[in-house]
C-alpha cells in the first residue's frame, strides 16, 4: 500500500478510528522494528487513552536483534505490552496470543469486580501504511478462527474475528499517518520503503543510507561490495556501481542503478539486520 496523502482522507480515517477505538478494550499497535519512533504516530496515545496497549515490533526479522531487545525494554518501561515479530510467520503468533491473554486478564478481572461476566475482550490493530497490519491480521486470524459476522447493537456493520472464547479482533485495521513534518522521520520512512520511490530522489536517498551505514554499521558495505569504506558517500556509491557492473553505454557509471540496488539490498535484508533508530537516543 502506498501513501495516499490527502488531508481529507486522513481526517476521515482518524475519525473512523476514533469511533472504532471506542468499541475495543485493547489497542494493538504495529510499528516497524527498524524505526520504532518514526513509524509511530503519537496521536495514538491520546486516541488509545484508557485502553490496554500492545506494541508489536514488526519486521523484526529485518532489524538488529540487540536493538530489538532495547526497544522491547524501552516500550515496556512506558507501560506497553510488547512483542517482537515477523507478521508473515505463523510461529510468531503464539507469543502474541499469550501476551493478548495477559493484557486481557487485567480487563477481565476488572470486569468481574464490576459484576460483568463473560464479555469477550475486543481488540483492534492500528499502524501506519505498509507496517504489516493486513499481513498480521491474516496470519493471526488464519491461525485462529472464523469471523463472527455482524451482531445487533454496537457491532453493527463491523466484522469481528473471534480469536478464542475470550478475545475478538476487529477485522479492519486503523490507519495512522506518520509525522511527516519532521525531516528525519520522512527520510527514515523513505529508507525502509514506506514512501513511494517515484516521488523520491533515489540517488540522494542512497547517499544518506551509505552515510548512516558507514557510521552505525561499519564493515557492512565493505563485506557486501568488497570495497574500502572511505571517501565521500558519492565515491562509495561509485565503487558499489563498479563492483556490481552498473555501467551505462559509453562506459559511464550508472549511479541510478547502483542507488536502487543498494536501497533494495538494504530493504530486503541482504545487507544484514539493520536498525535505523536507537532506544538509547530516545530514552
Ligand atoms: P499494511 O499496509 O500495514 O496492511 O501492510 P501489509 O500487511 O500490506 O505489508 C506490507 C509489506 O510488508 C508486505 O509486502 C508484507 O509482505 C511485508 N511484511 C509484513 N510484515 C512483515 C514482516 O514481519 N517481515 C517482513 N520482512 N516483511 C513483512
From TrEMBL:
* GO molecular function ontology, one term from the record: GTP binding
Q: Which GO terms describe its biological process?
A: translation
Cellular component, GO annotation? cytoplasm
**Compartment(s) of residence:** Cytoplasm
Summarizing the function annotation, the protein's role is:
Required for a late step of 50S ribosomal subunit assembly. Has GTPase activity.
Domain CP-type G, chain residue ranges per copy: 10-178
Plastid as a keyword of this entry, yes or no, is no
Regarding protein family, the annotation reads: Belongs to the TRAFAC class YlqF/YawG GTPase family. MTG1 subfamily.
CDD domains, per database record = YlqF
- Annotated positions binding GTP: 58-61, 130-135, 174
What start and end residues bound the annotated signal peptide? none
Keywords of this protein's UniProt record, alphabetized? Cytoplasm, GTP-binding, Nucleotide-binding
Q: What is this protein called?
A: Ribosome biogenesis GTPase A
Amino acid at each position: 500500500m502506498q501513501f495516499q496523502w490527502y488531508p481529507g482522507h486522513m481526517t476521515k480515517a482518524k475519525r473512523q478510528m476514533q469511533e472504532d477505538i471506542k468499541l475495543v478494550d485493547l489497542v494493538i499497535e504495529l510499528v516497524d522494528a527498524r524505526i520504532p519512533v518514526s513509524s509511530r504516530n503519537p496521536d495514538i496515545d491520546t486516541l488509545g487513552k484508557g485502553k490496554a496497549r500492545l506494541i508489536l515490533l514488526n519486521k523484526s526479522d529485518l532489524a538488529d536483534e540487540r536493538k530489538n531487545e532495547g526497544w522491547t525494554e524501552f516500550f515496556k518501561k512506558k507501560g506497553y505490552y510488547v512483542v517482537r515479530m515477523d507478521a508473515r510467520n505463523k510461529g510468531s503468533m503464539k507469543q502474541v496470543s499469550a501476551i493478548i491473554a495477559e493484557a486481557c486478564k487485567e480487563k477481565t478481572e476488572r470486569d468481574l469486580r464490576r459484576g460483568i461476566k463473560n464479555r469477550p475482550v475486543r481488540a483492534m490493530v492500528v499502524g501506519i501504511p505498509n507496517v504489516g497490519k493486513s499481513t498480521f491480521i491474516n496470519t493471526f486470524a488464519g491461525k485462529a478462527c472464523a469471523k463472527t459476522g455482524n451482531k445487533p447493537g454496537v457491532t453493527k456493520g463491523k466484522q469481528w474475528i473471534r480469536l478464542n472464547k475470550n478475545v475478538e479482533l476487529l477485522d479492519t485495521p486503523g490507519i495512522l499517518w506518520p509525522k511527516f513534518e519532521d525531516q528525519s522521520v520522512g527520510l527514515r520512512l523513505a529508507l525502509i520503503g514506506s514512501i513511494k520511490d517515484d516521488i523520491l530522489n533515489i540517488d540522494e536517498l542512497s547517499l544518506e543510507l551509505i552515510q548512516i551505514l558507514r557510521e552505525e554499521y561499519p564493515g557492512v558495505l565493505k563485506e557486501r561490495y568488497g570495497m574500502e569504506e572511505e571517501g565521500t558517500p558519492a565515491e562509495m556509491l561509485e565503487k558499489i556501481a563498479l563492483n556490481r557492473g552498473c555501467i551505462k553505454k559509453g562506459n559511464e557509471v550508472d549511479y541510478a542503478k547502483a542507488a536502487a540496488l543498494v536501497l533494495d539490498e538494504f530493504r530486503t535484508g541482504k545487507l544484514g539486520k539493520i536498525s535505523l533508530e536507537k532506544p538509547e537516543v530516545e530514552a
